Amino acid sequence: MEYEYGFIQRIVELVSKKINWSPLHVADYPVGLESQMQEVKVLLDVGSDDVVHMLGIHRLGGVGKMTIATAVYNSIADHFEALCFLENVRETSKKHGLEHLQSNLLSDTIAHDKLIGVKQGISIIQHKLQQQKILLILDDVDKRE
């Protein structure tokens, strides 16, 4: 009985996330976006399972990296159990610290509320997020840590 309850609860959560998801705004005039978006999707190989994919888009500022990332996010979101789009990572980490970014990531993906510190955030991210297929977009990252 408890197994059935957990199974039903998981289905409700997944359906709820799909129903409540709304696409992010992409540029009003996305000139040349489709070909760049397709290139990124091929590199990510979204249809494959059990593999972690990481892709960095780096160019000069103001040339559409965020637009490409947003369009790709919208087009592949339905392949993932959880979604998180963290904007302005560099600025946010300087103003509020890594703990704030970790909290945003965890609240978007597993509905986790309060962190005690960065080390706890790392531990939770390592253990909880490995159990889900997650699409995570980080905008404006300037350091690996």
What can you see in these coordinates?
- GO terms for molecular function: ADP binding.
- Residues 35-143 form the NB-ARC domain.
- With 145 residues, the chain is mainly alpha-helical.
- It has two domains: 1-79, no CATH class; 81-145, no CATH class.
- Helix content is 51%, strand content 7%.
- The protein has six helices and two strands.
- The chain has helices at residues 2-20, 33-44, 65-76, 89-96, 98-109, 118-128, and strands at 82-86, 134-138.
- It has a two-stranded parallel sheet.
- Helix 2 packs across helix 3, helix 4 packs across helix 5 (98-109) and helix 5 packs parallel to helix 6 (118-128).
- The radius of gyration is 17 Å and the shape is globular.
- The relative contact order is 0.13.
- The model has no long low-confidence stretch (mean pLDDT 78).
The helix fraction, in percent, is: 40-55%
Biggest sheet, spatial arrangement of strands: 1-2
> Which spans of ≥5 residues are poorly predicted at pLDDT below 50?
none
* Count of helical regions: 6
Shape: globular
Strand percentage: 5-15%
Integer count of domains = 2
* Rg calc: 17 Å
Overall structural class, as computed from helix and strand content, comes to mainly alpha
Mean pLDDT: 78
Describe the sheet with the most strands: 2 strands, parallel
Number of strands: 2
SSE run: HHHEHHHE
GO molecular function: ADP binding
Protein name: Putative disease resistance protein
Domain NB-ARC: 35-143
Pfam families: NB-ARC (PF00931)
